[in-house]
Specification:
DNA binding, 15 helices, DNA recombination, Integrase, hpI Integrase, Chain A, DNA integration, mainly alpha, Integrase_catalytic
Length: 308
């Protein structure tokens, strides 16, 4: 008697449903409005977990992907909407006996995208650049360099194609940005030199997945390793009382560093907003982190101007 027969004889059910199988059944029983819209929302998660066995997906897998959305700068409200769809799928799977609990209900998403305030020191920046140059993925240095000097979001850069790059004008065109409008990126010579190392003809992605060239590469492993080599924590460092001593550094923090550097260089807030692709100056203000020395310099200059 084989393993399957033994389980059946013992009254046990073998649960081998893939995430895609459950989603297909979930949609087939969808009796509410906006079927097409819900199908697209479910398809988002199918692209992430499609072929995996439902019972093999754990809370750490879900949390890791949500953290990647936070790192990419997605709004908390957007992430929560996507999470609600996933929770609905898990609720259905639970009702059908395919899983034992809805693990999505245990995942809490705080407003991390709004209060993340970490900016690299000069020493940390140098170490990170070196770690990226030495990375096993040969394009990590290019990606991080582009983020540092343009302030572009990770998702925007990962979806850039070679046909978006104007090598004559040293620019790149972001056709689909977070705020819904196109934006032109301006690249300094150091970025153009690196781009020319990998230059291709056509409309392929600059950072493609080797297995699926039409999809961007998942860079989390390479990024995490570079942070570790550079001695930069990707987790909050806590004081004995539980308060945060040093915030974790995420890819999205490079965008904060870009805006802060422009502010420290004396650029006007409307200029920074335009370069960062912000529709609202209030949004830009959240990205600017003025250090103690800059504040002291402003006060000293004001005192001098008053003749005091």
């Amino acid at each position: 008697m084989g393993g399957v027969e033994l389980f059946i004889q013992a009254g046990k059910r073998i649960r081998y449903k893939t995430f895609h199988d459950v989603c297909t059944e979930y949609l087939s029983r969808w009796g509410k409005k906006d079927y097409q819209g819900q199908m697209q929302r479910v398809d988002y998660w199918c692209n992430i977990f499609g072929d995996r066995i439902m019972t093999d997906i754990d809370i750490f897998d879900i949390r890791e992907h949500i953290d990647s959305m936070i790192d990419a700068g997605e709004r908390t409200s957007t992430i929560n909407r996507k999470k609600a769809v996933l929770s609905s799928i898990y609720k259905f799977a639970l009702s059908r006996g395919y899983i034992d609990e809805n693990i999505i209900r245990n995942i809490v998403i705080d407003n991390d995208t709004k209060h993340r305030d970490r900016v690299l020191t000069e020493s940390e920046r140098s170490r990170l650049i070196k770690a990226c140059k030495d990375s096993y993925w040969d394009k990590l240095y290019l990606l991080v360099l582009m983020a540092m000097v343009t302030g572009a979001r990770k998702g925007e850069l990962m979806n850039l194609r070679w046909c978006d790059i104007n090598f004559k004008d040293s620019t790149g065109l972001l056709g689909d940005t977070k705020n819904g409008s196109s934006r032109e990126l301006h690249f300094p010579a150091i970025v153009m030199t690196e781009l020319k190392r990998f230059q291709e003809v056509g409309s392929g992605l600059i950072f493609p997945s080797p297995e699926k060239p039409e999809q961007p590469l998942d860079v989390r492993k390479a990024w995490s390793k570079a942070l570790k080599v550079a001695g930069i924590s990707d987790k909050d460092l806590l004081n004995p009382d539980g308060t945060v001593r040093l915030e974790k550094f995420t890819f999205h923090c490079l965008r904060h560093g870009f805006c802060s550097a422009l502010s420290d260089a004396g650029k006007e807030i409307n200029q920074i907003a335009k370069l960062a692709g912000h529709k609202s100056i209030q949004t830009t203000m959240r990205y600017i982190h003025q250090g103690r020395e800059q504040s002291r310099q402003i006060v000293d200059e004001l005192t001098h101007n008053f003749g005091l």
